[in-house]
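wait is this the right file?? whatever heres the structure
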């Protein structure tokens, strides 16, 4: 049996197995030759002191043979002729829901308005290079959902929602690095996630499920208070008495459809702000207390940061922080500008970016009260459309240096940033309502007090970061997970207001699938 050990070591020891082996041998008072294998179970960084340490949880094998194990896929069943369940959306909630249905002996029919992961690349190129937004296939819509091409972060605080380890292990079984089982903040990377998503889709099809791309749902068919199927933009009708609605936080047409059909939905608070980009070396120097010029060294990863403040009675916090990352254009319709961020698996870009957002309250949506449950969505749209107008009516974004923003000054120049479509110097007070602008200005000053060096004109603010979560909740029964009014309709994942990221969405997809039995 291996010996379990928890310890703190210097970064260079954690990164080099010979050094780690010698260190562990001394702790256990054994010869390094007695250690046949060290398996790292968990790894995290402790950067609270100037001398940075790595926390490790290990299984140490002493004088016994070590056999590497692989994580197997579940035993999927052939569901070609089984009862069918429609899943609308091929993001993490939809894909993991589909795989769970196959385990249960049910046939998923996954309907995705966008294109597959390979074809999506062409649509992303059109946004970045030509400023053309395809309303059905973009950074938010398409196989794998928003996370596929905007980072693939797998960290969640939602431990109570379900089995996080099961989701991580499934990712590994489909091709993700086993390192995601070890790291405190696991991350797959935009460059690697598409291949994993494709493997999931192929497995769904192999066992009898269907995945239909470029198939946008235009109506949900209901009879006597229960779903009977859907119609698509192609004019097709697909029948089923159970539908998992996993359309993501940006599927405004679905929210509008439900509202038109008098299916109960409600406005939900969300958060909105900007995406801030710093030189990664600056963030490293702040977080690791290292010299800006000499850098963090070869044994530490690019530093992330997380910060939360209360400003004028509102929470202001970092969101989806991307070390060594890139800012991406994430509009889903022409006539709007939206930002998000992503990192490749190595996180090796020269800049770090993070959403810096403000908590919104339902009363903030009062100017849009005539839209009822869609008031928050219309508030969101108004800011995205204003950003598009003031930046020149392309996919260029309004941008401002951080200190200039706090001083209400238009920046004389904006350096080239990682945002490929480009930037336009704008005083960002033109983009946001006054209360949001003032809160952001005060908040950045507070951030600068907590992270010395953070408040700098070397940081560029891009506006807006507006798709942090769904502005609408689709209520469901706590036990059956069905919509409160409609039998057989399972609101699911981020778009329904029951998840916040890849892991929690995947968990919710599985939970809804389990309720489809019977």
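ok assuming it is, sequence goes like this
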């Amino acid at each position: 049996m291996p010996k379990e050990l928890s310890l703190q070591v210097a970064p260079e020891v954690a990164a080099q197995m010979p050094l780690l082996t010698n260190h562990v041998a001394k702790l256990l008072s054994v010869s390094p030759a007695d250690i046949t294998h060290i398996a790292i179970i968990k790894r995290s960084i402790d950067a609270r002191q100037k001398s940075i340490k790595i926390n490790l949880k290990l299984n140490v094998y002493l004088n016994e043979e070590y056999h590497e194990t692989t994580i197997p896929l579940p035993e999927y069943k052939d569901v070609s002729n089984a009862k069918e369940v429609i899943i609308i959306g091929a993001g993490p909630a939809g894909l993991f829901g589909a795989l769970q249905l196959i385990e249960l002996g049910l046939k998923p029919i996954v309907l995705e308005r966008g294109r597959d992961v390979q074809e999506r690349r062409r649509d992303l190129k059109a946004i970045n290079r030509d400023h053309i937004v395809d309303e059905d296939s973009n950074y938010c819509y398409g196989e794998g959902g928003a996370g596929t091409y905007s980072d693939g972060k797998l960290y969640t605080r939602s431990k109570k929602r379900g089995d996080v380890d099961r989701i991580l292990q499934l990712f590994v079984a489909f091709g993700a690095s086993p390192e995601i089982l070890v790291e405190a903040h696991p991350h797959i990377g935009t460059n690697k996630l598409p291949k994993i998503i494709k493997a999931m889709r192929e497995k769904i099809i192999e066992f009898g499920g269907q995945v239909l791309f470029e198939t946008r749902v235009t109506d949900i068919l209901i009879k006597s208070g229960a779903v009977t199927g859907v119609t698509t933009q192609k004019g097709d009708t697909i029948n089923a008495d159970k539908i998992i609605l996993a359309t993501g936080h940006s599927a405004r047409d679905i929210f509008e459809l439900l509202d038109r059909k008098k299916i109960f939905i409600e406005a939900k608070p969300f958060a909105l702000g900007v995406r801030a980009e710093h030189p990664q070396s600056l963030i490293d120097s702040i977080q690791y207390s290292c010299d800006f010029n000499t850098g963090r060294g070869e044994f530490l990863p690019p530093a992330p940061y997380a910060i939360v403040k209360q400003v004028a009675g509102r929470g202001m916090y970092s969101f989806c922080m991307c070390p060594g990352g890139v800012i991406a254009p994430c509009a889903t319709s022409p006539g709007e500008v939206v930002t998000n961020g992503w990192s490749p698996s190595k996180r090796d870009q020269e800049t770090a970016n993070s959403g810096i957002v403000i908590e919104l309250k339902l009363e903030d949506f009062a100017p849009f009260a005539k839209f009822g449950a869609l008031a928050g969505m219309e508030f969101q749209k108004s800011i995205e459309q204003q950003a598009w107008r003031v930046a020149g009516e392309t996919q260029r974004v309004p941008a401002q240096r951080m200190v200039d923003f706090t001083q209400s000054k238009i920046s004389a120049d904006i350096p080239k940033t990682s945002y490929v479509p480009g930037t336009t110097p704008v005083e960002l007070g033109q983009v946001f309502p006054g209360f949001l602008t003032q809160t952001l200005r005060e908040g950045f000053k507070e951030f600068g007090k907590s992270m010395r060096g953070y408040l700098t004109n070397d940081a560029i603010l891009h506006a807006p970061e507006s798709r942090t979560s769904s502005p609408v909740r689709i209520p469901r029964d706590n036990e059956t997970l069905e919509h409160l009014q409609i039998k057989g309709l399972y609101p699911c994942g981020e778009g329904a207001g029951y998840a916040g990221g890849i892991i929690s969405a995947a968990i919710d997809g599985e939970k809804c699938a389990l309720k489809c039995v019977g």
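The first strand starts at residue 3 and ends at 9. so i think its the right one actually
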